[in-house]
Amino acid sequence: MKSINSSVLDKVYKDELDVDVKERILLVIQVISDNQHIESVAQELHRSRSWAYKWYKRYNDKGLEGLNDKPRIGKPSTISKETMEKIKQELSASNTGGNFRQTEVMDIIQKRTDVKYHKVHIYRLLHKWNFVPKIPQKKFIRTAATPEDKKSFKKGYKIS
């Protein structure tokens, strides 16, 4: 790989927003421009030798692009995108104003697809679809209490 000018590395370092990538660029700058040994730079950055060698090798192989994280691919969904889009459209067509209980959405998805998602994942889906999950609100148990009863129940300073 062709080596990059130290002024270019400095500019890239200043313009980089990702902290992890910025640290990797700093490693390369210190090794190339300052002629420091990789192990001493790793020690300065409070990183392991293997971390430093890994990122320096990726820089040598792929240049600055090698310092970026590789894309991570998760487990593929068992439900097709078209089916999830239909469920989303069905929910947005309902007249609840976009407020849903997680269990309601979980039941709808399970009835349509025979796949049961966890409540946390349903919350993520609702957030991704810009829906608002219904959250239980505090309710007064004794709504029939008189204003005097409610006032006496409130915490506060009592002057005797």
Keywords:
160 residues, mainly alpha
Total count of strands: 2
Order of strands, main sheet, comes to 1-2
Q: How large a portion of the residues is in β-strands, by DSSP E?
A: under 5%
String of helices and strands: HHHHHEHHEH
Task: Kindly describe this structure.
This protein has a two-stranded parallel ribbon. Helix 5 packs across helix 6 (102-113). It starts with 5 loop residues before the first helix and ends in a 7-residue tail after the last helix. The chain is built from eight helices and two strands; from the N terminus they run H-H-H-H-H-E-H-H-E-H. The mean pLDDT is 84. It is an all-alpha fold.
In short:
The protein is built from eight helices and two strands.
Draw up the topology in text.
Elements: H1 6-15, H2 19-32, H3 38-44, H4 49-62, H5 81-93, E1 99-100, H6 102-113, H7 119-128, E2 132-133, H8 147-153
Parallel strand pairs: 1-2
